[in-house]
Amino acid sequence: MEKSEEKRLLKRAVAGDAEAFGELVKSSETKLFSFALSICGGVRQIAEDVYQDALTKAFIGIRRFKAESSFSTWLWTIIKNCYVDFLSAQGRDLLLDDFNGYDPVTTEHGESALIRKERAENLRELISKLPLTYCEVVTLVDINEMDHTSAAELIGIDKNLLKVRLHRAHTALKRLIENSGKAFK
Question: What is the pLDDT of residues 102-144, one digit of tens each?
Fold first, then answer.
């Protein structure tokens, strides 16, 4: 979405136009929900709840949006904060096995599709066990394939700090994979 179009929609949304707010959300909905799904360990039910909570809070608080960043960056932060709130309410010892509903879309068939699905579920579960700052950079850079500069800007940190966090996240994830006993080969 072009900056001028975003500004026009933002002005309408701040005035209470729900349709304009919806158009703003729709422009980056896939990446935003993907982020929610990733930080929630691939548990669709939790991701949907966190995402919906974030959208509600964003719509209610749209007047506080200062346009110092893009609308999607602002929503990204709200999603992250809603997930932190969710973890606080549930406790960090949340077991992913307690939830159903993760159903990644795949166009493959047969055994290879099942293997890929299982690997993706295992990896999402392990990523969700990382500290949130690590989960965030892995999701942005590795899953959403965002460049370092954009990811650092989105999170609000220096590019070099992002690289450090990403390296530490990869190291921690590698350890989790090695200790999990789950097949990734």
Answer: 333 333 445 666 667 777 777 888 888 888 889 889 888 888 7
Q: Is 154 left (phi over 0), alpha (psi -120 to 50) or beta?
A: alpha
Per-residue model confidence (pLDDT) at position 184: 60
Owning domain of residue 44: 1-103
Q: Which of 48, 82, 103 is the last residue of a domain?
A: 103
Give Cβ neighbours of residue 76 (< 8 Å, ≥ 6 apart): 32, 35, 154
What's the rounded Cα separation, in Å, for the pair 21 and 166? Answer: 33
Distance in angstroms (rounded) separating the CA atoms of residues 21 and 119: 36
Same domain, 32 and 99: yes
- Report the predicted TM-score, pTM, of the whole model to 2 decimal places: 0.61
